[in-house]
Amino acid sequence: MASILDRYMESQKTETIDAGKKLRVGIIGCGWIAEAHIIEYLRMPDVEIVAAADLIPGKAEKFFRDKAPSLDISKIRFYPSHKELVDNEELDVVSVCTYNRTHAECAIYALEHGINVLLEKPLCVTLEEAIAIAKAEKASGKVLSIGFQPRCNPNMQMVKRIVQSGALGKIYYIQTGGGRRHGIPTPFGTSFIEDRTAGIGAMGDIGCYSLDMVLNAIGYPKPLTVTGYTSNFFGKDPQYFLDQGDPAEYADLFQVEDFAAGFIRLEGDIMLDFRIAWAMHLDTPGDTIIMGTKGSLRIPSTDCWNGDVGGDLTLYQTVAGELVETKFPRHEGTAEGDFYHKIRSFLDAVKNGTPAPVPVSQILYNQAIIDGIIKSNKLGREIEVEIPEI
What we know:
Helix content is 34%, strand content 23%. By secondary structure, the protein is an alpha/beta fold. It has 2 domains: 11-149 and 339-358, Rossmann fold; 151-336 and 367-384, 2-Layer Sandwich (Dihydrodipicolinate Reductase, domain 2), CATH 3.30.360. The strands form 2 sheets. The protein has a 9-stranded mixed sheet with strand order 14-13-12-11-7-10-9-8-15. Strands 3-2-1-4-5-6 form a 6-stranded parallel sheet, sandwiched between helices. It is globular and about 70 Å long.
């Protein structure tokens, strides 16, 4: 069993990238995550960044001067909105790196104008927005991929390979989540904590990753019911922000959740126990555990969710009456990095006309769980998840 990872890594081959035709790329939203996109695009010989947009006057130009000094910004056109960028440029691809609240409108507008979209996570804020994005993608015939770079991590791929191998048998219970002991992301200002920009907090920032890790491994079954809970005890405490060197006034601006938990019933009679935190009086709310009728898998948590695993994977089984544990050593990852492979796999799908590496049809279910937790918490009861056919 331990050789599965070795065989997987041996199967990876360096691909030659055809740079004969360059893809014209636009960046929508010039905040900190856009820097990661630009860094990777600059490593691609078949890409040309031609335009960028940001709502704040002068921000896009300054961002490119500071973060992409190797580019001749005289050849890049800057716009004050995503609509003006799309309307005035002939683009093959846009990266949407805006606030959560504007993910849907930016992605939909680009798709409706025949542009392929790499949309940063979270997909959006509400289930209704997610459905609208999925409909726009289907009508456009373009590639829409969601920015879940942990999918490219060898350890995450190992988790899926173990589950899909059948070694666990029928999956019936999953515990997942994670978070930070002291890590509300205010070093980047208040865009992560205000409702007008973020809409959702810890779930949109890191919780969606935890959900994707396990849902992708088991084939993304549809969520049926959700019982959810959210709180913001740390975010509403002025002392929390003073302790980390931020203004106490941030507590008045905090309008999202810093902790969330949910109990989700999935198709296939699978129960999912989920919890995520930006701040807590713990180092972790628990390892990820996938329990099956033939075996169970433990995935160690990290100190701060980073799209990886916190140690060796352990498969627990009973073989010939003996209790057996199989260790899968944690892999250090590829030389290029997960973010590179996220961008590269998206560009390859665009060029080759192949399916999106992280399709909206899957992340729609991820968003439905987040949306369900928020709605359930407001109602104080379990709710049914209703997702129409797209």
